[in-house]
Design a protein that fits this description.
Strand content: 5-15%
CATH architecture of one domain: Alpha-Beta Barrel
Number of helices: 14
CATH superfamily of one domain: Glycosidases
Largest sheet: 8 strands, parallel, barrel
Radius of gyration: 21 Å
CATH topology of one domain: TIM Barrel
Strand order of the largest sheet: 1-2-3-4-5-7-10-11
Length: 422
């Protein structure tokens, strides 16, 4: 191992900064039918406390911090850029450098400007040009300060959401006895009224019937737009900041097959990863994001085995999955990899330490096998706003309360970082 290997933690702007009131997610949090039972509010107040938080990372021994710029703060109105927000993120980057922390910058982490959604969002052709303008502005402002840049966080999230919705519908059909569309006891009029109320509220907030936010189920057209936005961003960054290394991140389950499930498992991997490989042709690295595994049998996805340890998210405790995913990605992407997210939601910090320990052991094995892995970013630095799961999912190495008290896992990850350097 050498000093170039990065070990750090990750956050997303909307989840930790607070008061991101020009974003689509903020707007949806305040809608009756937005799907967010809990509001982000001040989040972890990281917009104000970033300096203290970065200092704690450095003191613990970490050498990298993956964080996102908030497009909705930088461009709160179409074509209008906010100098205060721009200077803020410049300060965050400078603070990282001051403390010997390598900033790994993500340009878009799920939340978008509300005005973008009003113009059709991530299903409208214009989104590519809008994102391109934002990327150009970021490059103009930060230029050579950027070394590692992730364009879109989990560019396949819309695909995964569509998969989960499809699975939920299939499970419901099984429970209700097959393909019957009208069942006794279903209030069709009430369902229709609620659907109309959702449309009316969306029209009022965004001016559209069905807001195409980044985490909406993605159509084939929308998938292509996401790929285009990424490739345009890579081209622009290479032109404007030649020294920067650019890549995409994807959320990847460790997809395994039990007897009879081989075909379904392969199809799932192709849908979640394979279809994005052509869009990575000009990338300098790829961001691996993994939390657990999924096993396919002859009848589809299998639940975790009885007695399996589950995280707060309901995932199987399975840190071994990270190494499996790294190896499988390496088969298709012949370039450097970086683990941009990997972690566990739990109130038992000893299990977090165990998870990190096993995950890093897998990364070490991959390195020993000759796979070019450049870093490991634990998710997340601070207990944060986990979108529609609110504040109940505790992924953090630090507490969200006043002072952001460090958990033992922060010191442990820092010790591992020091041990991995020459």
């Amino acid at each position: 191992m050498n000093s170039a290997f990065l070990i750090g933690a990750a956050t997303a702007a909307h989840q930790v900064e607070g008061n991101n009131d020009h974003s689509d997610i903020w707007a949806m949090e305040h809608m009756v039918y937005g799907g967010y039972p809990e509001k982000s509010g001040i989040a972890a107040d990281h917009y104000r406390t970033y300096r203290e938080d970065i200092a704690k990372m450095a003191e613990a021994g970490l050498n990298a911090y993956r964080f996102s710029l908030e497009w909705a703060r930088i461009e709160p109105e179409e074509g209008v850029f906010c100098e205060e927000a721009t200077d803020h993120y410049r300060d965050v980057i400078a603070c990282c450098r001051e403390y010997g922390i390598e900033p790994v910058v993500t340009l878009h982490h799920f939340s978008s400007p509300a005005w973008l959604i009003a113009r059709g969002g991530w299903e409208d052709e214009r989104v590519v040009g809008y994102f391109e303008r934002y990327v150009r502005y970021v490059c103009e402002q930060y230029g050579s300060e950027l070394q590692y840049v992730c364009t879109l966080n989990e560019a396949n999230m819309g695909v995964l959401i569509a998969i989960y919705i499809r699975q939920a519908m299939e499970e419901r059909a099984k429970r209700e006895g097959g393909e019957a569309h009208l069942q006794i006891g279903v209030d069709i009029e009430a369902m229709a009224a609620e659907q109309q109320a959702k449309i009316d509220e969306s029209r009022q907030v965004f001016g559209v019937d069905d807001p195409a936010v980044f985490v909406s189920p993605r159509t084939e057209h929308g998938i292509e737009l996401v790929k285009q936005a990424h490739r345009h961003a890579v081209r622009i960054i290479h032109e404007m900041v030649p020294g920067a290394k650019v890549g995409m991140t994807l959320s990847l389950r460790d997809i395994q097959a039990a007897p009879g499930g081989e075909e379904q498992a392969q199809a799932a991997w192709d849908e979640e990863f394979g279809q994005f490989v052509p869009a990575l042709v000009d990338d300098d690295f790829f961001g691996v994001q993994n939390y657990t595994r999924t096993v396919f049998g002859a009848d589809g996805e299998l639940p975790p085995a009885d007695g399996s340890e589950l995280t707060q998210m309901g995932y199987e405790f399975y840190p071994q999955g990270l190494a499996h995913v790294i190896r499988r990605v390496h088969e298709s992407f012949d370039g450097p990899l970086m683990v941009t997210e990997n972690g566990i939601a739990t109130d038992d910090d000893t299990r977090r330490v165990a998870y990190i320990d096993e995950a890093l052991a897998g990364v070490r094995e991959c390195l020993d096998e000759g796979i070019d892995v450049r870093g490991y970013m634990y998710w997340s630095l601070i207990d944060n706003y986990e979108w529609q799961s609110g504040y109940g999912m505790r992924f953090g190495l630090m507490d969200r309360g006043a002072g952001h008290a460090a958990k033992p896992s922060l010191a442990y990850l820092g010790e591992r970082c020091r041990a991995w350097q020459d």
